[in-house]
Amino acid sequence: MSVSEPTLVCSPRARRITLSVRASGEVRLTYPRFASREQALAFYEAKRAWVERALQRVRERQQAMPPAASEEEQRAEIERLRRLAKEDLPPRIARLSQQTGLRYTKLSIRAARTKWGSCSSRNAISLSLFLMQLPEALRDFVILHELCHTVHHNHSPRFHDLLDRLVGGREKELNRALRGFRIR
Fold it and tell me: Where are the alpha helices (DSSP H) in 47-135?
């Protein structure tokens, strides 16, 4: 994976020129309408060393990954996690809801791969069955995060104050720990 020509994207939503390196090794150069293609390419040239380092990290991650499981093995693992999640998560959220006084209307467990959990405007909470791959303390943290959304449907300072209070002042520490895990 050497530095190759980037994929150029002129985005009406972009506010500045940005570079990203995807897990596939694709280098994406996004620029706003008010910037020229030449300006974007000049930005890319100025950041070429950063791109090379990012591609090196991608290569290292790919080499460290175990071989991919077969589709059958993946399905079996998802079903195993689904069974564990259905046993563990409903009583866990019920306990935390009772302890905190934060009420939700419904719980669903899904094979979500982009988020650990979500809370709807009607206070229905959805949790990813991949939470079962996390340590218990982080499972509780994700659930408390979603329960806090039943009061504050955003990530405002009041939301973070509530969550931080519920986790004993450890919100930042737990967030850092959670970022060390990936949904697989």
Answer: 48-64, 71-100
Distance CA 111, CA 136 (A): 18
CATH of domain 73-179: 3.30.2010.10
Sign of torsion, CA 19 51 178 62?
Answer: positive
**111-170 pLDDT per residue, tens:** 998 899 999 999 999 999 999 999 999 999 999 999 999 999 999 999 999 999 999 999
Distance (Å, whole) CA 79 – CA 129 = 9
Q: What angle do CA 99, 102, 108 make, to 5 degrees?
A: 105
Residue boundaries of the structural domains of the chain: 7-64, 73-179
Tell me the pTM. Answer: 0.67
